[in-house]
UniProtKB/TrEMBL annotation:
Protein name, as recorded: Beta-ketoacyl-[acyl-carrier-protein] synthase III
Domains as described in the record: The last Arg residue of the ACP-binding site is essential for the weak association between ACP/AcpP and FabH.
UniProt record similarity statement: Belongs to the thiolase-like superfamily. FabH family.
Keyword annotations of the record: Acyltransferase, Cytoplasm, Fatty acid biosynthesis, Fatty acid metabolism, Lipid biosynthesis, Lipid metabolism, Multifunctional enzyme, Transferase
Amino acid sequence: MKRAAVLCGIGAWVPPGVVTNEALSAVMDTTDEWIRTRTGIRERRVVEPGTATSDLAVVAGRRALDSAGVKSADLVILATTTPDHPCPATAPDVAARLGMTGVPAWDVAAVCSGFLYGLATANAFLTGGTAERVLLIGADAFSTILAPNDRSTRPIFGDGAGAVVLRAGESDEPGALGDIVLGSDGSLRDLITIPAGGSRTPLSGPDDPDGYFAMQGKPVFRHAVTRMTAAAQEARRRAGWSAEEVDCLVAHQANYRILQAVAAKLDVPMTRCAVNLDRVGNTAAASIPLALADAAADGQLKTGHRALLTAFGGGVTWGAATLTWPDIPVEGS
Ligand code: COA
């Protein structure tokens, strides 16, 4: 049997602060109806001032370690768009707070595809034999990079963290990952961006509007559907699964209409799609592990089920993966 990365623990965490569509319509020019019908989102969770990405990541990471019944890992990978600081990476701090001082730890930056990029990184270490156990966390406090009254971004994004523990195992075990498909197209970098504040364009001052996240919704919608579908088809092909054999499609929770379009192109009915964006919105790097945890906690994703994962994010970047669901304790978000 082939050596494989095996998912053996999962943890999820969203901050307690709920922001409903009604609350947003009280402070910006939008309505519950517009947000619900265009995105499928009813509410999202938002951090209190002073709560950082690492605070979310530590809770999700601890829950994943508990779910796996272990105290530590050989390395810690944090996928995030919103590190606590521009420098250094946030993963070492998260590892230390989880009692893993001395363990290699680094951030992965692929925006909403970050979890799948992290999964591919973890997979390479585990299948290559240089690690036996990896803690992979996807966490974003996305609300901290949104312009306060921007109706084109505020309604869409939410904060949260999801984490998994992966161990070295064999390809026929429940929890085993199949091939992971990744891609990028940097010529589309301006579709999803924080224009200023990096080495290319410094912030012109504390009120520089280019210091906030910006997204061109329509082309992002189109590319997200095309790329997620193609990547998922390729991952499914490599796994040798037919459309009927996909028990659960876990696509990046960007927009309900995007999920519908991707599911339709993949011939997977919506009843077999994980959906939690109505409650948490688009949580960027946390989206896939949160959706996995919620689908498993709700009983939609059962032991032995074949799950097809796919995501699209800034860069632009995309990816897809397959796995069979293991028998592990799960607490939803
Ligand atoms: N409330 C009310 N009206 C709004 C609004 C809001 N929050 N945001 C935009 N509008 C208005 C626009 O001004 C526009 O008005 P106009 O027709 O008078 O010009 C109209 O609604 C349509 O705007 P548009 O941006 O074309 O809407 P859309 O149908 O493309 O939906 C998104 C916008 C952002 C929901 C959609 O493009 C989307 O989901 N894109 C993908 C986003 C995403 O998934 N990003 C993450 C990927 S990693």
